[in-house]
């Protein structure tokens, strides 16, 4: 719906994109900050993984802690953006697609943050070692996937959609 409507806006949408009456978010404000937060969290989770591989308990712990903190911060900013949104999910194809796509991604950020929080607690309890840490690696790969999906959403929803 979003891509079709943005590439060939129908008369019902006012023949423009975004549709008439929709004030999209400035992509250089909270959306850009959220992009930087997620990219930074990708660095911190990689830093944690390197610490784990080098048997550096403190580095792995700090990396996981900061990654979880950044995941929570991203989610809080996304919630703030939802509450301050000048449009709703019922406002045309733009609103429904925006809230569905970013909400689905936000749910995955919450899942990933929870997954990483469990890894942080397991690391704190010495459940991981440089040769035994599949749960952490799975969480890290998942987190990187969530990062890549966000880049696509940022470009297509926020940048292109503004």
Automatic annotation (TrEMBL):
Q: Which residues cross the membrane?
A: 28-48, 60-80, 92-120, 141-161
- List GO BP terms, alphabetically: mitochondrial electron transport, cytochrome c to oxygen
Supply the CDD domains for this chain.
Cyt_c_Oxidase_III
User: Where does the Heme-copper oxidase subunit III family profile domain lie?
Assistant: 1-162
* UniProt subcellular location: Membrane
Presence of keyword Cell inner membrane: no
Q: Which UniProt keywords apply?
A: Membrane, Mitochondrion, Translocase, Transmembrane, Transmembrane helix
List the InterPro entries hit by this protein, alphabetically.
Cyt_c/ubiquinol_Oxase_su3 (IPR024791), Cyt_c_oxase_su3_dom (IPR033945), Cyt_c_oxidase-like_su3 (IPR000298), Cyt_c_oxidase_su3-like_sf (IPR035973), Cyt_c_oxidase_su3_a-hlx (IPR013833)
Bilayer topology: Multi-pass membrane protein
Q: Name one GO cellular component term.
A: membrane
Q: Which GO terms describe its molecular function?
A: cytochrome-c oxidase activity
Function summary:
Component of the cytochrome c oxidase, the last enzyme in the mitochondrial electron transport chain which drives oxidative phosphorylation. The respiratory chain contains 3 multisubunit complexes succinate dehydrogenase (complex II, CII), ubiquinol-cytochrome c oxidoreductase (cytochrome b-c1 complex, complex III, CIII) and cytochrome c oxidase (complex IV, CIV), that cooperate to transfer electrons derived from NADH and succinate to molecular oxygen, creating an electrochemical gradient over the inner membrane that drives transmembrane transport and the ATP synthase.
Homology family:
Belongs to the cytochrome c oxidase subunit 3 family.
Q: What is this protein called?
A: Cytochrome c oxidase subunit 3
Q: What is the originating organism of this protein?
A: Habroscelimorpha severa
**Gene this protein is translated from:** COIII
């Amino acid at each position: 719906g979003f891509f079709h409507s943005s590439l060939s806006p129908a008369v019902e949408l006012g023949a423009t994109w975004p549709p008439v009456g929709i004030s999209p978010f400035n992509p250089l404000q909270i959306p850009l900050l959220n992009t930087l937060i997620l990219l930074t969290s990708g660095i911190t989770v990689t830093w944690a993984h390197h610490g784990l591989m080098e048997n550096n308990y403190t580095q792995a712990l700090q990396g996981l802690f900061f990654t979880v903190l950044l995941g929570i911060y991203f989610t809080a900013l996304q919630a703030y953006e939802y509450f301050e949104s000048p449009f709703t999910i019922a406002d045309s194809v733009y609103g429904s697609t925006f809230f569905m796509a970013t909400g689905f991604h936000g749910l995955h950020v919450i899942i990933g943050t929870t997954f990483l929080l469990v890894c942080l607690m397991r690391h704190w309890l010495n459940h991981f070692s440089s040769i035994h840490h599949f749960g952490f690696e799975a969480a890290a790969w998942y987190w990187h996937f969530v990062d890549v999906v966000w880049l696509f959403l940022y470009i297509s929803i926020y940048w292109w959609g503004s």
